[in-house]
Amino acid sequence: MAKKKKKNSTTSKQAMGFGVKNLSPELQKADALLVRRKWEEAQEVLESLSRSYPQNTDILSRLINVNYELQDMPAYQHACERYVKVDPKAADVQFELAGAYVMSERYILALQAFQRALARWPHHQRAEEASRLVEELQAPVQEVLDHPALTALDKQARIEVGAFHEQGQVYLDLGEYDLAGQAAAKVLQQAPSFLPARNNLSLVNWLQGNLEDAITLAQEVLQQDPNNIHALANLIHFHCLRGEIELAQSYVPQLKASPVQIWDHWTKKAEALSYLGNHADILELYQQFQETGHSEANKAGAIFYHLVAVAMDREGQEQEAVNLWEKALECSPSYALAAKNLADQDLPISERHGSWPFTFREWLSSSLFHEIVEVVQEKAEEDLQGQMRAYLDQHPPLAHLVPLLLERGDPQGRHFALLLAKMVATPAMLQCLKTFALSQRGPDQMRMEAMELVAEADLWPDESIRMWLRGQWQEIRPLAIKLHDETQGQHSAKVTQLCEQALELLRYGEEEDGVEAERLLRQALKLEPEAPDLSYNLAAAYELQGRQQEANQQIREVAARFPEYLFGKLGLAVLHVQAEEFEAAEAILKPFLSYRRLHFSEFAALSQTYLQLLFAQKRLDAAQSWLSMWERADPDHPAQENWRMRLLMAR
User: Fold this and answer.
1) Could you tell me which residues come within 8 angstroms of residue 119 by beta carbon, excluding any fewer than 6 positions away?
2) Is 90 exceeded by the pLDDT of residue 297?
3) Cβ atoms of 33 and 41 closer than 8 Å
4) Mean pLDDT, residues 384-396 taken together
5) Strand, coil or helix: what is 25?
6) Residue 451: CB partners within 8 Å, gap ≥ 6?
7) DSSP code of residue 11
8) Region 69-87: what's the mean pLDDT?
9) pLDDT at position 480, please?
10) Rounded to an integer, what distance in angstroms lies between the CA atom of residue 289 and that of residue 88?
């Protein structure tokens, strides 16, 4: 088997060109990352560098090492392949490439690679191990060659077909879909009934955006082999992406009952059931797996344990899920999905996304992803909504993905779905957001944002709703208020000057400043006696002087005299809160929740008044929800820090 690659001493070969990165400092950067065992960052630097210097063996040797450390077998294998093309005399790498094929279970390619290496370097230090592996590979290779679809061919043709098929799988792993399709086509030309190649071609068609052809090919496989696990799993996946959930579910009994024992049958079944969210079926599958007494210690096993862990977490078995994610990482220490799910479990409950089975890119075909990127990059912002709506009409699978990604996508997928639904804002997308807002999946902040988007579209009833916030169900009132910063209440130039001087004194003043502010405001009121803000600020001047009863009376008079003046009503509500007359305060505040438009200053005053009420009622969770909503609507308002501290100290 392949072993960790030691530093290669082969002379490097460089491909220089205009605009390429400077080799020496970039290699030093990569080496520093390797010393600190920052494998993923080193991989990124080296991959970028290798695009500038595709034939540099110093870069490739480091890539081989880092990919092995990451247990990224497709990348490890590809780095070895690239190296031997540049330097066919590199004996160590030739043997490593053969070992990489073994680990990827590409048995014919492995056998051929070992045989070539042994023929050229029969006395190499790895020759003895390679000879042993050549013997061990005979059985799995013969199993491939004995496939019924190949029996009509002579042995050499069977080996050739098998090698083409495995090379196609290599291309699939690397994302080289055109080459993967060509390899599958070559296999089917010589062996039309070789179903694994037809399954590969089905996957290639999906990845390239040809979902109809992908389904047709999978159905053709089932016509010949009704128990074919790969075809059944692919059909469940494809129909799920088209929104045909009932049709996808119809294949589940057939999949579960399939007696076929292939190397990854447990994982393929779990994958298909995960696309549907059939968590109980996955746990039943795991029970069957445990009864066999088997265990998995490879990448397929890591994926299987991860998918079962997600099902466990979704069914409330959180500790069991954590144990299984840890087991997945024992099988494959660099398996990112298991590691990221574990990291999500460590977050505060209000920030967790909740377990997810797949990455965003596993839900989305490669062609669809790149087309979306092009639409977003090429269209002006004002045209984007219309373009995206048109794109959704032309690509129904994308619309069907939104509720799936909101319910069980990874963080990137969920953010994408939220952004897309927000961007197009069709009735169907808004309904997806409503369902998401009322669910227990995703961080509180994302579900609150979804709730506010739905509220703006007037799709909530005019009453409180139950939302899952900070790990428990809470009653909240959705708001559909749009904020503006338009100038309000025009005063004459003289009154404006007097008012600004008074407000400056009230903002930072002492008792004597209150006296001067009162004088200025009374002077302004002689000029504009019907200005409610002048009368309301007069109450503040009284309060600054310690004349609290007069201040309270002034607020009551303003609220009675100017019933449409928001600040006067809010001031009256504060007086009720201070008197612990909570029902009276809520009666004043409730109508404002139905407003559709407020100035930023009005919303800030409304928020602070509501926070005072909720705080006085000791409804701290509701107060936190309101504060979070205010923070999203008007970030960095200076009063928010004080409320954050008050809520923190009250808990």
Assistant:
1) none
2) no
3) yes
4) 76
5) helix
6) 433, 434, 437, 460, 465, 467, 476, 478
7) P
8) 90
9) 73
10) 44
Contacts 24+ apart (CB under 8 A), 59-63: 59/12, 59/27, 60/86, 61/5, 61/7, 61/8, 61/10, 61/93, 62/27, 62/30, 62/31, 62/34
Q: Which residues contact 90 (CB under 8 A, 6 or more apart)?
A: 8, 10, 57, 83, 84
Residue whose C-alpha is closest to residue 603's, from 559, 637, 578: 637
Coil, strand or helix at 306 = helix
Angle at 151 between CA 150 and CA 155, to 5 degrees: 80
In the numeric block, which tokens belong to residue 152?
């009509």
Which letter does DSSP use for residue 564 in this model?
T
Q: What kind and span of H or E run contains 428?
A: helix 427-437
**Three-state SS across 473-538?**
EEEECCCCCEEECCCCCCCCHHHHHHHHHHHHHHHHCCHHHHHHHHHHHHHHHHHCCCCHHHHHHH
* Residues recorded for the chain: 651
Own/partner pairs for 318-325, CB < 8 Å, 24+ apart?
A: 318/345, 321/345, 321/355
Alpha helices (H) along 528-596? 532-544, 548-561, 566-578, 582-589
3-class DSSP state for residue 255? helix
Three-state DSSP state, 315: coil
- Cα–Cα distance between 233 and 269 in angstroms, integer? 6
Three-state DSSP at 50 gives helix
548 touches 578 (CB < 8 A): no
Q: What is the DSSP string of 71-124?
A: T-HHHHHHHHHHHHHH-TT-HHHHHHHHHHHHHTT-HHHHHHHHHHHHHH-TTS
Q: Answer for the pair 392, 371: CB distance below 8 angstroms, yes or no.
A: no
DSSP 333-363: TT-HHHHHHHHHHTS-GGG-----SS-HHHH
Report the half-sphere exposure of 421 (CA within 13 A, side-chain side): 33
* Cα–Cα distance for residue pair 5/637, rounded to 1 Å: 56
Rounded to two decimals, the pTM is: 0.74
Indicate if the pLDDT at residue 16 is higher than 60: no
* CA pair distance 508, 536, nearest whole angstrom: 17
**pLDDT at residue 9 tops 60:** no
Q: How far apart are CA 642 and CA 637, in angstroms?
A: 10
Cα–Cα distance list, 160 to 154, 263, 430 (Å)? 10, 22, 53
Q: Hey, what's the torsion of the CAs at 23, 29, 35, 39, to 10 degrees?
A: -90
- Identify any residues that bridge with 472 across adjacent strands, giving them in sequence order: 469
Q: State the Cα–Cα distance between residues 56 and 252, nearest whole angstrom.
A: 49
| 11 confidence band (pLDDT: 50, 70, 90) | very low
Element (H, E) at 466: strand 465-469
pLDDT (mean) for 129-135: 95
Amino acid at 595: Y
Q: How far apart are CA 525 and CA 382, in angstroms?
A: 46
Structure letter (DSSP) for residue 244: -
- 574: three-class secondary structure by DSSP: helix
